[in-house]
Amino acid sequence: MDLQLPAMPSYSKTLTRRRIPRVMIIGAGVIGMTCALQLLERGYRVTVVAKEFASPVLNAQRLTSEIAGALWEWPPAVCGRHADEDSLERAKVWCMDSYAKFVEMAMSAEETGVFVKQSVFYFRDRVEDIPFQLDKMNELSHLPGFQHDDGLIEQTAVNSACGIVDAYQHMAPMIDTAVFMQWLYKQCRKKGCRFVHDDIHGLLRDQAEELKIKYKSQLIVNCSGLSAKELAGDEDVYPSRGVILKVRNDGSLMPKLTHSMCISAINDKPHDSKQIDEDFVYILPRNDDKLWLGGLVQPNQWDRDLTLSYPPIRTMFDKVKEFYPPLRNYGDEDVEEVLVGLRPARKGDICLEWDPVSPSVLHNYGHGGSGVTFSWGCASEVCAMVDHALKRHKLIYVSRL
Ligand SMILES: Cc1cc2nc3c(=O)[nH]c(=O)nc-3n(C[C@H](O)[C@H](O)[C@H](O)COP(=O)(O)OP(=O)(O)OC[C@H]3O[C@@H](n4cnc5c(N)ncnc54)[C@H](O)[C@@H]3O)c2cc1C
Q: Residue 73: which of 81, 61, 65 has the closest Cα?
């Protein structure tokens, strides 16, 4: 299925192939690959350079983008935060842009790995800012049970002792990341994308000219996730460790769950807090008869070599069961896999801007716990910025080829 993109100048119609601008993307996670596909759709030539690519092989070392719970969430997401109102507004635009794309992709769900399912978001505070744009689409209902009494708690079998005071539900895209990442890869390949393994070190601004010559590109888009700490020299980038426990959802231990549930993280925790947040939990049904049980928000923790015996994971498992009591039927032996991922977080906000020193490097990193949610929206903005930059410097890029 081809994504419908807004009408843009078609470089392929006006320039010979040799003169079509080439963009180099660093990173093959969801951020890099969605940018690659949108740029290819607009007629650019694209090279994706990464030290690791998503693997079709089960049990291979996974990218963060493959470990993502990959539920679309309205900002601030359940484990997210924003520096100010402007950044929150910008995030909402990306979010809605992605929503539209994901809903379209869900029309070919088996192929793309994108499904749209009922999702319930629970909060320990009253929620003022509900996804109003979804409301307009008649897809949101603010759950009255939490506004007035405990009606919803009875409906969903969620334990009222978890301190929940508010909730909303809507149809949300949920992405089977293994299928989605392979779909992105195939779409890009079909459109002529070049993929290169390379492990880049050092500041991009110091080597931009060298890289552009090596990869015959006019511009570099930095989608390197956590590595932006080094490549962009950005000390605000830090890992936010998360964990997912994979269990079966085939109806054998409890009635099969078809909708997702999340309890929001406590939002006033400082970025550099060492305190472990086990209160943030989510339950996500995937499409292969599996449930992904998650959470943990552990800032500045790099080690991914954890097991079920790690006390915070054990506590998280208990919290999930406490929140949704039918899960008490699951024991340790039912946990098929423990997935540990490092969300590429950034103090303040996502960095989607031109490098202040090197004007041919565009940064797109720091998506924290919402990279899948923001992916298509950020990719659209990257395309617009690339279009604008190349149009402005038309003579330069043509003469360099
Ligand atoms: C447990 C967990 C649950 C999550 N749940 C959700 C969710 O429900 N919804 C949601 O929207 N998001 C969720 N996220 C967040 C989401 O996974 C991330 O925001 C997203 O994957 C970030 O994508 P990325 O492409 O920036 O990074 P990555 O997936 O890490 O990709 C980075 C790419 O850059 C490459 N790279 C890195 N360094 C170099 C280098 N030096 N040279 C060359 N290439 C390099 C890597 O090889 C890789 O290809 C979750 C994350 C975790 C860990």
A: 81
- Which two structure tokens, joined as six digits, stand for 335? 């946990």
Cα gap 112→182, rounded to integer Å: 8
Ligand 1 atom nearest the C-alpha of 31 is 25
Find the mean pLDDT for residues 1-5: 37
| 372-389 as b/e: b if 16+ CB within 10 A | bbbbbbbbbbbbebbbeb
The side-by-side arrangement of strands in the sheet containing 337-346 is 140-142, 166-175, 114-123, 260-263, 277-285, 290-299, 237-248, 337-346
Atom of ligand 1 nearest to the CA of 33: 25
Please tell me the distance between residue 30's alpha carbon and the centre of ligand 1 in angstroms: 7
CA-CA-CA-CA torsion sign (333, 334, 335, 336): positive
Q: What is the pLDDT of residues 301-337, one digit of tens each?
A: 999 999 999 999 999 999 999 889 999 999 999 999 9
Handedness of CA 293, 297, 301, 302 (dihedral sign): positive
Beta-bridge partner residues of 247: 291
Residue 74 has a pLDDT of: 84
Q: Is 282 annotated as a binding residue?
A: yes
Counted residue by residue, the chain has a size of 401
Distance 173 CA to ligand 1 centre (A): 18
Q: What integer is the mean pLDDT of 114-138?
A: 74
CA angle 203, 196, 189 (to 5 degrees): 130
Mean pLDDT, residues 192-212:
97
Cα–Cα dist 382/354, whole Å: 10
Q: Are 328 and 321 in contact (CB under 8 A)?
A: yes
Give pTM, 2 decimals: 0.89
- Contact predicate 286/176, CB 8 Å: yes
How many CA atoms does the CB half-sphere of 43 hold within 13 Å? 19
Please name the helix (run of DSSP H) or strand (run of DSSP E) that holds residue 261, with its range, or none: strand 260-263
The predicted pLDDT at position 288 comes to 79
Q: What tokens were used for 143?
A: 């759950």
Mean pLDDT calculated for residue range 115-134:
77
Burial of 154 (0-12, 13-18, 19+ CB in 10 A): exposed
Can you tell me which residue has the tokens 């719970």?
Answer: 69
Paired strand residues for 152 = none
